UniProtKB/TrEMBL annotation:
The lineage of its organism: Bacteria, Bacillati, Bacillota, Clostridia, Eubacteriales. Keywords: Cell membrane, Cell projection, Cilium, Coiled coil, Flagellum, Membrane, Transmembrane, Transmembrane helix. Its main location: membrane. GO terms for biological process: bacterial-type flagellum organization. It comes from Clostridium gasigenes. GO terms for cellular component: membrane. This is Flagellar formation protein. InterPro entries: Flagellar_biosynth_FliO. Residues 81-108 form a coiled coil.
Length: 125
């Protein structure tokens, strides 16, 4: 009974990771087609943020706090391209980590399944 529960939990966690990965791709596809994009957002305090915003091909560093938004600096197209490349690189690295985690969960689930099916007998180390 407990073993079935553990297997079910592993499968559910694997499915959650897969759904997270797929939904994240869909959200990014939707956001890429917008004219105005928030490229990055960092919380500085409870209600204060620094944002990198892309409007058309132009980029801006902005601050937002207490309902007030200010433009701090303009960014060149080259800077925006570099920022987006770096963000894409981090996104791809995160995806690789998720894929590795999913593969590890699958391997462990298969090993556990084999162990259960063999009745816990064998030469497992």
């Amino acid at each position: 009974m407990i073993i079935k529960l553990i297997i079910s939990l592993v499968i559910i966690l694997g499915l959650i990771l897969i759904l997270f990965k797929l939904s994240n791709k869909k959200i990014n596809d939707i956001n890429d087609n917008k004219y105005i994009n928030v490229i990055d957002k960092v919380q500085i305090s409870k209600d204060s943020y620094i944002l990198i915003v892309k409007i058309g091909k132009k980029g801006y560093i902005m601050s937002s706090s207490g309902g007030k938004t200010e433009k701090l600096e303009d960014l060149s197209e080259e800077e925006m391209v570099n920022i987006q490349k770096e963000k894409l690189k981090r996104f791809e690295e995160t995806n690789i980590k998720y894929e590795n985690t999913i593969n590890l969960i699958k391997e462990r689930a298969l090993k556990l399944k084999k162990k259960i099916c063999s009745g816990g007998k064998g030469n497992e180390k």
